[in-house]
Amino acid sequence: MSKLEDYTARIEQLAAELGLEYYPVDFELVPQNFMLEIAVYGVPVRMHHWSFGLRYIHQLLHQNMGHSRIFEVMFPGDPCRAYLMNQNSLAENTLVAAHVIGHADFVRRNALFERFMKMAGGHILEQSAARAHRLEQALARHGRPAVEAVLDAALALEPHIDIQQELYRPPYPAATPAKPSPPGLFQQRYQALPGGKPPDAAPVERPRQPPYPEYDLLWFIARHAPELRDWERDILLAVREESFYFYPVHACQIMNEGWACYWHARLLREAEFLPHALYLQALKVHSDVVRPYAGEHQLALAINPYHLGSCMWEHIVERHGIEAARRICAEEDDFGFIRNYLDAPLAERLDLFSYQVRKDGETRVLSRDIQAVREAILRPRYNYGAPRIAVDRVHDDQSLVLRHDHASDGRGLDLAAAEQVLNYVARIWHKPVTLHTVDFRGAQRVLTVSHPDSGHTSAKPA
Fold first, then answer.
1. What is the pLDDT, as a whole number, of residue 75?
2. CB 271 within 8 A of CB 263
3. Torsions phi, psi for 322 (to 5 deg)
4. pTM of the model
């Protein structure tokens, strides 16, 4: 048994003594290039697409320039799967093993993870590999241009799911046509007159589709696109299923990373079996992970979830105790966590504020009010970080109308990016597609793809 395996086993025993309850964790040491691919693709084996290549280059540049470093990638499940980099030091990987155990405890406790794991399953790696195999079969049968057209649309709409719905949701209820009212006394006498005849039956109105604004764009297009083939539908639903699986990771990032940091620090502090020199090296790594700013900068304009989360959990445990912290861990996501437990004294101690960057590059502090600070932290996390778009209706000619709920979304769209996504959608909808939105100034705009094959988009004021 290696030293890392020995330390990990003893840390797991210590974790159990301290009351952590978690799914088993399968640890695996992997080389740097494999770790980088996991971070970019999201899972070790996933459907291939050109956008992942762009992300890989971006991540590689940041890593080579020293702006980012990957210590571990962990996949929730039963068992959890954790990948550690074989080039990291023993101290680094010992800390990472303790960190992963904290993640595994959070995943098993938290209600949001529990709900989504029940829907999407706890075996994402096997499921993703099976989807990648089906995609390779589709490539062989239908060619790369046809498959990439579907993947372009599916990955562009990846965050556009409705997390209030079930993963395997039923179709809309069938609409029952209204029965005509029986003729009254006057109508009966009129029809009995010479030459009288029953009035023409009123035309049957087609039920509105969808019956209400539909925010699960991947599901709706997969189920209702007029000319979609089975293999195309399979790709859309596969991307949707992966989006459901990863949603709790997004929605609980501050809580989850903070909980893992709190526990890796505590586990290492109480692991008397660790050599003193190794503990000091791990402590230095911990300090680098949870610092609020990078390098020598003394001001941060972005939240480090490791720093904020760990500070909040320490604050909660100090004030309310570990059992209260475990209850919060089970019941909340980041929205409830920040709104209910980031109080003004802690925000002041952490020097948190909301700010605005002007077009000329000037950065201005807008507010240190606790409500403004909370909403500034949460705003990018709303709706998977994506604009809130709904299917408004499908007309009789099968043209699709989308509507941006900018009032609740609180922002306008980048029209150039919106046009590109609309073109992707039109290629698989095969009918005209229209989006009602607003630009960054708040002016109403209507984007339309009238000829899907041409890829031409028109934009005009509403």
1. 87
2. no
3. -70, -30
4. 0.84
